[in-house]
Design goal:
heterodimer; A: mainly alpha; 11 helices; disordered C terminus; B: alpha/beta; 3-stranded antiparallel beta sheet; 30% helix; globular
């Protein structure tokens, strides 16, 4: 990737120099992605936790149940649901808690004074989250393939991974909205209070076919249910309900606005 | 257009007024020392100039533009707090990362060479000594070839040689036409570098003048001696020579005479009280009464 902007900072520009141009958002996003990736990967336990959690859930909750593990459709849907839960939880925790913790580090105000707006940092966070979600999905897919009857064509696998990453975007944004607004201590319980009801109502633990009609109606308005159904559609061909995509897009937009508002209102710590 | 322009700025944190109607202008190529005790509002002022915070009232301009706009910060360099370096990243990675934000950064190798960090490029910043971290912090402020540099306590906690090397780097940058605004609570540091000094305390600019003038104002001396009754007396005086001459002329008995420069805290005390002319009677620390 090369710098696409043209201002040269060399020499001594006249006193009436106009405001400079920052590096292009893609150059800066790439820069922040490298930085965040290195920071994440240098603390191996964080990576390991992300990889282990979905795999262990598979072994505890899906593989032992012959009625689920032995049925290609159910098994695939179960893998999809757990995969989505893993990605949602990773996104909300990494961003909600991670951002809140970062904000308490003294390097953070320095970052905010570099010539870059909030965009590159957010883009990098989303992409970095995506990369580590993929690390978490890999063993999950392997287990599903080796120990259950779940089947996927190469095309479905690709569509599934693509969908799950796209579906993770609103959760990453929600995490950021929480992380930029709250302290680390407050962010933790808030994330938990949001994650588990959303995961349950979205049918990530129990298939929504078991829900009574009223719960099903609520469920269909949640981003988790919309994401789950889109993911199931991508991996099994079962059609999602018609409003799934608009519902997900609406939540994504709302969370994006909240994330930007939180970032703007964040003025760092009171004293440093 | 000034490099830094702060006019009528007030910034509160809850009930605490960190800056109270502060105005300050720094021209291009100036080297200004911002002097004040801890909690005086120095860091808050720098955070406004670097766009990290918004003033509650008043206007802040960096090179004529709002520093909260990322584009205007392409001309700005500043130091992270020493403790704030990302511990798991290598020295070279941090420099590459920060430099990557600027259109024409100093090549990482050259910068590390200049600050004597060339051998440490592959070390994680968490493993550096305090002095090495300080050097890296100042190096980071210069990586983008900035026109304006904000240095927050650049050499706090350094030994004499480390401090001298950093001062040289700052002077060299300034000699090349750069504008420097540095904070310190060490009079010595401001004395070594600044041409102009701004004294700030409790969010108010107490003095803004050339280095010599300010030094004259804060150059109080602390005189201690034991009087005839065996009581240890302590006096804060503007002119210790005059004070001692008086002491001798009046024939007051004394022993163990001791004279030293007043600490900066004591000097600030004077400025805050608004008393330029200090004499023994109104700052008599021990309330022993006038000696004369």
């Amino acid at each position: 990737m090369s710098a696409t902007t043209s201002t040269t900072g060399a020499g001594a520009p006249g006193p009436d120099a106009p405001a400079g141009q920052t590096q292009s958002i893609w150059v800066l996003s790439w820069l922040h992605l490298k930085y965040q990736f290195l920071e994440t990967v240098r603390i191996p336990i964080a990576v390991l936790g992300n990889v282990l959690f979905p795999s262990l859930s598979m072994f505890f909750f899906v593989v032992p149940q012959e009625s689920v593990a032995g049925n290609p459709l159910y098994a695939t849907v179960a893998v999809a649901g757990l995969g989505l839960f893993a990605v949602c939880s990773a996104s909300l925790f990494t961003y909600g808690l991670g951002v809140a913790e970062d904000r308490q580090l003294p390097f953070y105000p320095f970052l905010r004074s570099l010539p870059a707006g909030p965009g590159p940092q957010m883009v990098a966070r989303v992409l970095n989250g995506g990369i580590f979600s993929l690390f978490g999905l890999l063993p999950l897919i392997l287990i599903g393939w080796l120990f259950t009857a779940a089947t996927l064509t190469a095309g479905q696998l690709l569509a599934g991974v693509g969908t799950i990453l796209a579906v993770s975007v609103p959760f990453v944004l929600l995490g950021m909205a929480i992380g930029y607004k709250l302290s680390a201590k407050a962010a933790l319980p808030v994330v938990q209070v949001i994650l588990f009801p959303l995961a349950f109502a979205g049918g990530l633990f129990l298939p929504p076919q078991m829900f009574p009609a009223w719960l099903d109606a609520i469920s269909k308005a949640t981003p988790t249910r919309a994401g789950r159904d889109l993911l199931v559609q991508a991996t099994t061909g079962l059609d999602a309900y018609a409003l799934a995509l608009p519902v997900l897009a609406g939540w994504t937009l709302l969370f994006a606005v909240l994330a930007v508002l939180s970032y703007r209102s964040d003025e760092g710590r009171r004293f440093r | 257009m000034s490099a830094v322009e702060v006019s009528g700025v007030t910034r509160r944190f809850g009930d605490v007024v960190a800056l109270d109607d502060v105005s300050l202008e720094v021209g291009h190529g100036e080297l200004v020392g911002l002097l004040g005790p801890n909690g005086a509002g120095k860091s808050t002022l720098l955070s406004l100039v670097s766009g990290q915070r918004r003033p509650d009232a008043g206007v802040v301009r960096l090179n004529g533009h709002d520093p909260r706009d990322a584009r205007s910060r392409t001309v700005l360099g500043l130091t992270p707090q020493e403790t704030g370096l990302p511990a798991t990243l290598r020295v070279r990675e941090v420099v590459d990362f920060v430099g990557g934000h600027y259109p024409d950064p100093v090549p990482t190798g050259d910068l590390l060479e200049q600050f004597g960090l060339a051998d440490l490029g592959k070390r994680q910043t968490g493993s550096l000594s305090g002095g090495q971290k300080r050097r890296l912090a100042v190096a980071l402020s210069l990586v983008g070839r900035p026109r304006v540099v904000l240095l927050d306590e650049p050499t706090t906690g350094l030994d004499v040689s480390g401090r001298g090397a950093l001062w040289d780097a700052i002077r060299e940058y300034h000699a090349g036409g750069g504008t420097v605004l540095l904070t310190s609570h060490y009079l010595e540091e401001v004395q070594a570098l600044a041409e102009r000094v701004v004294v700030i305390d409790r969010g108010i600019v107490l003095a803004d003048d050339s280095l010599e003038t300010i030094l004259g104002r804060v150059g109080a001396r602390r005189v201690q001696f034991t009087d005839a009754a065996g009581t240890r007396q302590e006096h804060l005086v503007a002119d210790s020579d005059e004070f001692v001459r008086d002491l001798v002329h009046t024939g007051t008995e004394f022993r163990d005479l001791e004279i030293r420069g007043a600490s900066l805290e004591e000097a600030f005390g004077q400025l805050v009280d608004g008393t330029n002319e200090v004499d023994a009677t109104n700052v008599d620390a021990t309330n022993e009464g006038a000696v004369r």
